[in-house]
Batch of 2 targets.
Target 1
Amino acid sequence: MKQRTGLFDIVNVLILALFACTMLFPFIHMAAVSLSSAEFVVGNRISIWPKGINFDAFAAVLSDKRILTGYKNTLIYVVLGTTLSLIVTTMGAYSLSRRNLVFGKTFMLMIVFTILFSGGMIPTYLTVRNYHLLDTIWAMVIPNLVTAFNLIIMRTFFQGIPRELEESGKIDGLSDAGILTRIVLPLSKPVLLTVMLFYAVQIWGNFFSALLYLRNADLYPLQVIIRNIVMMGVISDITVSSALGDKKVVLESLKYAVILVGTLPILLFYPFIQKHFIKGAMMGSVKG
Amino acid sequence: MKLSILGQIKRDRIFLLLLAPTMIFYIMFRYVPMFGITISFMDYNLFKGIAGSPWVGLKYYRMFFENPDARIIIKNTVLLGFYKLLFGFPAPIVLALMLNEVRSMIFKRFVQTVSYMPYFLSIVVVASMIDMFLSPSTGWLNHALQDMGFPAINFLQEPGWFRTIFVSSEIWQQVGWGSIIYLAAVTTIDPQLYEAARMDGAGRLKQIWHVTLPGLATTVAIMFLMQVGQILEISFEKVFLLSNAATYDTSDIISTYVYRIGLLQGNFSYGAAIDLFMGVIGFVLVYVSNRISRRFSETSLW
């Protein structure tokens, strides 16, 4: 086959390159402003290249008590929530993957129905309130313990494991629990990792539960702190250096630094976890 | 040999035990709230609870439909969903088609990798970025506008801009991720079809039109039906974070209204009534579109 590079290819690559810039520009711009010194930010002439590089904005943000508390809280929610969710989802999905489970169809139907219909914001809030979960760390973990989507991904995967493997385990004298821990789970590492990441990202970014169920500022996750600082302009706690002129402009660097600090973990891990997410997205899209 | 129900329960007891936490969760946190909807037919009092509050029938439903706000928030919800579908649905398909034509694997990888990135940002971070970028005094977009000789625009305070901002930022965040499924579908197209098309003298555009697109047709149809079903499902968080009293004419949707009037102001019954109204319409939409997508192919939401 001849491979000629024609006008079509040139136009295509140019448009895609422009598209890639659109995707990247916001990140680069934020980094550039947050790394620039105040006098250049004042002139508003920073686009993609930092001028007068310094880390003052990041130093200020990372010494802010609320940010640190928010980080700590978010980490607790992510670790606790992901662990619990993954365990419960795996147990549930494994049971539901058994074709002849008694009432299995009914249980599955009950779960799928919740994708279609829910009580809505107010009845859910009142329920969580009745369980006395408001203003506890559990409010960020329990109300979203199992996601139907993740459960279905896992169930589909378990159903794909050949029955013969389980039967041979049985012949070798393994109990049902033994088959799960010795045969099924080791084979399921990819799906376990994928669902784990889905849960972790979901809890990391969960703002809704915090908005509804948390009033105590000591429990606020990072997302609430970011919102308060960047969008509501609650900045009193951060040491704003006004030495270099216009306070407002230094604030701009600070706000971008706050956003970046709240995104950095995901951006850093992103290259390593990307392929697992894509696997999960494909598994999730072809459901039985 | 067929076991009795009791026998089956005994046989499956370990699996039922493993399943128990999941089902308890669903009952406690998904089904109990569904029964909580009954408060929309009561004058619910937080301190008297469901048992102590008096029944008022359809009072709150009537109140909603007689409220002039109702028309605005229903219209805003439907329009936001509609515009998101109109512009957001074709975007990943176009991206996948273009990526599929790239010959340099390195460049293709690079574009794909950066296109997924925004998907992993939290909604608060995306809303914060929009807030900063669109700021009339310090945002880069307004600087760029001013450099080109246009006046600065206070984007987030003007109702006329809300839908554009919402939909375009949704596309920015979702387009790469959405293209994954189409790229996967493209790989299942038989390469011989391209060969044959080339023999018939089809150029690149004609190959896309006559081979790639027909090959994607089923996937496109299913995805479209699924998204039609979810047209009312608009991210509460994002609208909540980006809207403000100045833009309520276009930015107030059913869920933000329920939050504000129902939860913040404590009109629980009224809020629950609006919730149920939206829940029922959403249910019908998803159910019907899923039924249709099932007839198109084996694939469906469940």
Note: Confidence is low (pLDDT under 50) at residues 241-249 of chain A.
Target 2
Amino acid sequence: MAETVAGPAHDVAGTAPEFPMPRASGCPFDPPPGLKELQEQGPLVKVRLWDGSEPWLVTRYAEQRAVLGDPRVSADTDRPGYPTKTSAEAGEGKLSFIMMDDPEHARLRRMVTAPFAIRKVEALRPAVQRIVDGLIDDMLSGPGPVDLVEAFALPVPSLVICELLGVPYDDHAMFQDNTRTMVRTTATPEERGAATREIAGYLAGQIARRLTDPKDDLLSGIAGRVAAGELTHGQATEMALLLLIAGHETTANMITLGTAALLEHPDQLALLRDTDDPRLVASAVEELLRYLHITHLGRRRAVTADMEIAGQVIRAGEGVIMVNEIGNRDPEVFEAPDRLDITRDARRHVAFGFGVHQCLGQPLARMELQVVYGTLYRRIPTLRLACALEDVKFKHDAFIYGIHELPVTW
Amino acid sequence: MKVELEADKCVASGQCVVAAMDVFDQDDDGIAILLTEQVGDDQIDDVKEAVAVCPAAAIRLVGA
């Protein structure tokens, strides 16, 4: 059994449960039952990773927020004790500021915060509505069934982030395919490296062009930082790569998972479909973010100085993993946490993480999901799965949980 | 009651603006700014929500 906070740190070495854990068959929307059991055992529990290392798993909401908000934990993957997700990830370079600590993290992040301000995101809402309506028009004008991933869920965030960055959407097949390889946990280091290099090379070229011929887009803003000597061309490329790939697999999988979950909860789907209250749509987005959760491998950090959490001393050089998926199902914070209820106030969820690394794109993601969830089921009220839920292929093999293909008809 | 904001800590999540639009705004870079330091009773719940959702713990509600 798992070592708990009450036990000494090393007397049961080698017996920690493995992480990640499998979900229960037939329960694709719920966290693995083993994780819920660990949460009941204590707020901090040791787990064993692919490489035999045994970091702490932080199981509860309050402790997850405390650790993610603590400056004594590092997001630098090169730090001793950092719990890597796969051997491929262990050998990788930095993905810009998400793998850095302050003050360098803050310096770089602030260079790209402007377009994610609430008012700027709201100004994009009509354009996102047009994109969503256009894709639904295309679906309705053709034969069903269609794969909702290809026809709708992936194009929505892809078109939006391309527009924001200034990347031509015509090139989407290249970076969507490579992004898919980058988030696949079974990809070899060589495959991941090649995929990363192809997108990075493409973006480096886009940035180089904007050094001499700037436009009104985010890539030109990043190129301007290079011209001003604030970024190297390499740092600018890493930053552009982070922004391009972060927008794809995240929002797309929330769209498909959310749709599949709502189709399994027809009462909740009906509430959402029949409302014209934007507050209920926004509330549904928060609840689906809380209930579903795509970052199933957790937020990972290396501890840089001894710290005490929930009575347990975590030593410098140890790793910590915050599985926000079970933090969002913590019964201390959310009543009847395993129930999907779009009318509850779920805004305090940690689906976007917490602390200084909390998702930069969250206002954009929220707005896109509000437009999507507020439009798709109203425009296609007869939307339904075109296969049994048991036949839907869920992404157990990806850094971002979700759905590989979602056949739907109407 | 009085709101205090440590703008140096702000990570531009904008969640304070979503929670309490009458009290918080953002500058051109998305960094939070205070529209008012004194909040009335009708705004306290919204500001408490802003305190709770701020990922950078940059907001405090002080005073009686």
Note: Residues 1-11 of chain A have pLDDT under 50 and may be disordered.
